[in-house]
Amino acid sequence: MHFIFDLDDTVVNTSHRQRLLADGSIDLEFWRANCTVGMVARDKLLPLASKMQGAIRDGLDVIVCTSRVMGAADFAFLRAHKMLGNVMLSRMGGDERGCGILKLDKLQALAMSRGIQWQQFAADSIMFDDSKEVQAVLGKAGVRVIDPVQYNLSQQKVA
Questions:
Q1: Which helix (H) or strand (E) holds 79?
Q2: Domains in the chain, please, with CATH?
Q3: Rounded CA gap, 80 and 43, in Å?
Q4: What three-state secondary structure class fits 58?
């Protein structure tokens, strides 16, 4: 079984580093300008993060699949919170593809590198991602994608 976790708005609250454009998309220039060590250090864990940490502790196949370009501060944050998965899939600088196709390509390449047919990999995977685009693209490709937003909201109310 493969447990695939997005980061932003799934297991990590990075809202202080985000700003939306008029069309509802993320202002990438603002995001990039706020990927400093100090700003990343202000990120907070969302409730689903504890499930991810537990899966890592249990030795399960945890895959981080994020649309962000990962920097040293990001890896330090994940390391400090024991959230480094078995595999870290992220965007390379200059890759401007949509997050759905980016993540599909990354996961298909991972399946191939492991010698697993895509259909089998997809059937054996559960992905947690807040992006409607990712939910649509990966869902169409056979992956069960769970939107974590309601879970995180319900758990925050309990806490």
A1: helix 72-80
A2: 2-13+44-158 (3.40.50.1000)
A3: 12
A4: coil
Token code pair at residue 55: 């899966």
Is the dihedral angle over the CA atoms 23, 29, 32, 33 positive or is it negative?
negative
- Over residues 68-115, the pLDDT tens digits come to 889 999 999 999 999 999 999 999 989 989 999 999 999 999 999 999
Contacts of 105 (CB under 8 A, 6+ apart): 97
Q: In what order do the strands lie in the sheet with 61-65?
A: 87-89, 61-65, 2-5, 125-128, 144-146
pTM of the predicted structure, to 2 decimals: 0.90
Q: What angle do CA 18, 54, 113 make, to 5 degrees?
A: 80
